[in-house]
Specification:
Distance between the termini of chain A: 49 Å
Helix content of chain A: 25-40%
Radius of gyration of chain A: 17 Å
Largest interface: A-B, 44 and 44 residues
Number of helices of chain A: 8
Strand content of chain A: 5-15%
Oligomer: homodimer
Shape of chain A: globular
Strand order of the largest sheet of chain A: 3-2-1-4-5
């Protein structure tokens, strides 16, 4: 029997790269999908390409969808600031300006479209509920309902074999994501999590802070260079 | 109170143009959204532009999303043939090759993203259940579940005011869509329904056949020029 085919959403960050490694470790025939939705910087896209190549993904599509045309997020609109220097408690409170309207809905839609066209049975997305509790589209109930969308809104669903949507990291703490990634050989130095796109990661945006905390708690060193050296 | 703002998905066809006219007739402040998803021909896009302009829409965004990269549909892949000369009974049977994997899921995702970013309370989509019963993502139960996506997957939803998704034509017969459009001043001659993109509409693809039948039953003449003259 041929291996199960899976579409893996790959942003180029720590979580999605680990999610990709998980799908590969399960023997999946992986099609990686990176959505270039008009992020303020291009580092994520090049990180995704480098990670996919290093992990030996056979097919990697980069799809442009200019969500920046809509605006409404610090990640697609330079006029909206990215918060920096927030404490963990602050990061966990409310919906941050880095929320991109309906982003995971758009990403999953494209992933199930790709899966259906390519005959893939599964979609993997690295959403995490613990660290980004402020993002509505990272909650388990959102994914539960999206599974219904795959069942009702596609040909595969009508045929009784809807694309299965996997969220293997949904309840995994960042430190455990780092540990899993390390075990599976994720090239952390090629990934990019910082909300800015400068030569080095800033170290102080929400995403850098969560990442650094994850490495610290896992007792591992983040190979990425940082502008602000991580605190012990 | 300012008028309710609504995003209207506009493909440039008969149904979506009528749907747009319906939203305008209700006094909505309309933002039209056309998704250029890699259709084989460009006539739909220019039809959408012409219709939006004629009906006086203030903001009309054309968003490119290259679903043709995925393939899997006669509408995005020239190697897959568009069926022609089918009877009504044949048209209503099974999922046709013109089905674009997860198209309405992708369209609605983008519409709720746009709505959230632009502060719109409503999304209108011209899906029709009667004529295209073969398309899974035109069924009422699909839209019911997508309303849950808007509720669970967006900031607006979390705030208790999810974007409302309207399908005003979901159970309307084509002849009644034509009658409604005529009453509301839809410029039928600017719309485009044919699956081909030639100078004149072919008159024999499923979409032309349904459209011509609608006009015939409504007792109105379709102002579009056809290669194959419609039968009385």
């Amino acid at each position: 029997m041929p291996p199960t085919r899976a579409v893996v959403l790959l942003s180029g960050g720590l979580d999605s790269s680990t999610c990709l490694a998980i799908a590969l470790s399960k023997g999946r025939d992986v099609l990686a999908l990176t959505v270039d939705y008009g992020q303020r910087h291009r580092k994520e896209i090049s990180a995704a390409k480098a990670v996919a190549k290093r992990l030996g993904v056979k097919e990697h599509k980069i799809l442009k969808v200019d969500l920046a045309q809509f605006g409404g997020s610090a990640l697609t609109d330079e006029r909206i600031g990215v918060p920096t220097g927030r404490t963990e408690k602050e990061i966990g409170r409310g919906i941050p300006p880095t929320y991109v309207p309906a982003r995971n809905t758009v990403l999953l839609s494209l992933a199930i479209a790709y899966a259906e066209a390519a005959g893939a049975d599964e979609v993997y997305i690295a959403a995490n509920f613990l660290d980004y509790s402020g993002y509505p589209d990272c909650r388990p109930e959102f994914f539960a309902i999206f599974r219904e969308v795959a069942r009702l809104g596609t040909k595969r669903g009508v045929e009784g074999r809807p694309t299965r949507i996997h969220t293997p990291l949904i309840r995994t703490r960042k430190a455990d994501i780092v540990r899993t990634g390390a075990k599976l050989g994720v090239p952390f130095g090629l990934t990019w999590s910082c909300y800015h796109g400068r030569a080095k990661a800033c170290g102080v945006c929400d995403s850098c802070k969560l990442r650094l905390k994850g490495f610290r708690e896992a007792g591992l060193e983040d190979p990425l260079p940082y502008e602000t050296p991580p605190k012990g």
